[in-house]
Amino acid sequence: MKSSPFFAIALTITGVGMAAAQVASAQPRPENASPIYGVTLPEGYRDWKFIAPAQEAPPLDELRAVLANDVAVEAYKEGVLPFPDGSVLVKLAYKRQQSTEFPPATVPGAPTTVQVMVKDSKKFPDSHGWGFGRFVNGKPVDVAQHETCLACHVGNVKDHDYVFTRYAH
Amino acid sequence: MKSSPFFAIALTITGVGMAAAQVASAQPRPENASPIYGVTLPEGYRDWKFIAPAQEAPPLDELRAVLANDVAVEAYKEGVLPFPDGSVLVKLAYKRQQSTEFPPATVPGAPTTVQVMVKDSKKFPDSHGWGFGRFVNGKPVDVAQHETCLACHVGNVKDHDYVFTRYAH
After folding, report:
1. For residues A119 and A95, is the Cβ–Cβ distance under 8 A?
2. ipTM of the modeled complex
3. Smallest Cα–Cα separation from A149: which of A118, A122, A112?
4. Which residues pair with B107 in a beta bridge?
5. What residues in chain A have their Cβ under 8 A from chain B's Cβ atoms?
6. Helix, strand, coil proportions of chain A in percent (round to 5)?
7. Alpha-carbon separation of residue A149 from A124, B113, B162 (angstroms)
8. Structural domains in chain A?
9. How many Cα atoms within 13 Å fall on the side-chain side of residue B161?
10. pLDDT confidence bin for B100, thresholds 50/70/90
11. Spatial contact of B65 and B53, defined as CB atoms under 8 Å apart
12. Rounded distance, CA B111 to CA A134, Å?
């Protein structure tokens, strides 16, 4: 059989997937847990404290907000890096929609994704202590999307413990 | 003395200011309280629960987020209108700034205003139960700016108890 670029890519992806599976192999992946990392939507996250808003340009064209649990909020406020184990960040994203009541404003339309980062240096030693989960309608998205998380965070924000969002004072 | 349009406008503004002063006359205005309404920045508001993000177009060009105290959050979740007495909403606003780490994103720059709405039907009978405060660097802005709050909320969102922001689910 002749090797092809596609085959090489497929092998690479499989390799990443297998390495990731080893990370999460200590326990079975819970229902609705993200591939690779086994991260689930944390209970009660919608009531967590607010870190910062953001806007994502088209084509996504979203309004976003990061919330965090108390461990992470404390670290943010104290300027502690790296984030301690137990820190959890959740990013809510919504389609950006023109306000019908106040023309200068755009406001949240339909929710799109919920993205989670969990710090657990024992569980995620191969991803700088972070586990990632991306969810649509409460269900994790596929392996391919989860394979993009780590490289982007490592490539852009390694000096902020791989976390993009800063606390909005 | 000949009356002028400018003079007529000045008289009207003075009249509004006087009527407003009567609303707040029951007790002396606390330090750092808003003119007209006597609303102060509520203690601990930065840790309140998150309602929704928004973006304000140029020239303000801001990212915003509304937080609320537990009374208001409960009303939002239960769909209770009008908001009960004791509800407090706080809107944080920041200059919108290009992310240097992730090109598609804009993120909070310098904070601009913090805007507060307090529901107290006894204290604010002439403004549908709401008191307003707009703060820059922790200090309330002037009377003229506070005179704009009520008319805009009445004109645009009287069917949502004079509150623009909806809960982002």
Report:
1. no
2. 0.84
3. A118
4. B97
5. 46-50, 52-57, 60, 63-65, 67, 73, 92, 94, 96, 99, 101-102, 104-108, 111, 152, 156-157, 164-166, 168-169
6. 35, 30, 40
7. 13, 34, 41
8. 5-160 (3.50.70.20)
9. 23
10. very high
11. yes
12. 30
Q: Which position has the token pair 């200590």?
A: A26
DSSP structure string for A124-147? -GGGTTEEEEEEETTEE--HHHHH
Cβ count near A105 (within 10 Å): 19
How far is residue A121's CA from residue A119's CA, in Å, rounded to a whole number? 6
Two tokens, residue B59: 């020239």
Which helix (H) or strand (E) is B159 found in, with range? none
**Tokens standing for A42?**
């944390």
Whole-number percent of chain B with pLDDT over 70: 83
DSSP H or E run through A40 = none
B64 CB neighbours in chain A (<8 A) are 53
Which residues of chain A make contact with B54, given a CB cutoff of 8 A? 63, 99, 105-108
CA distance B169 to B163: 17
Largest CA-CA distance found in chain B, in angstroms, rounded: 63
β partners of residue A96? A108
* Residues in chain A within 8 Å Cβ distance of B67: 50
Amino acid at position B3, single letter: S
Task: Give the whole-angstrom CA distance, residue B50 versus residue B168.
Answer: 9
Confidence of residue B55 (pLDDT cuts 50, 70, 90): very high
Beta-strand relationship, A88-98 and A62-68: antiparallel
Query: If we measure between CA atoms, which residue out of B57, B121, B34, B134 comes closest to residue B91?
Result: B134
Q: How many residues does chain B have?
A: 169
Q: What phi and psi values does residue B137 have, to the nearest 5 degrees? A: 55, 35
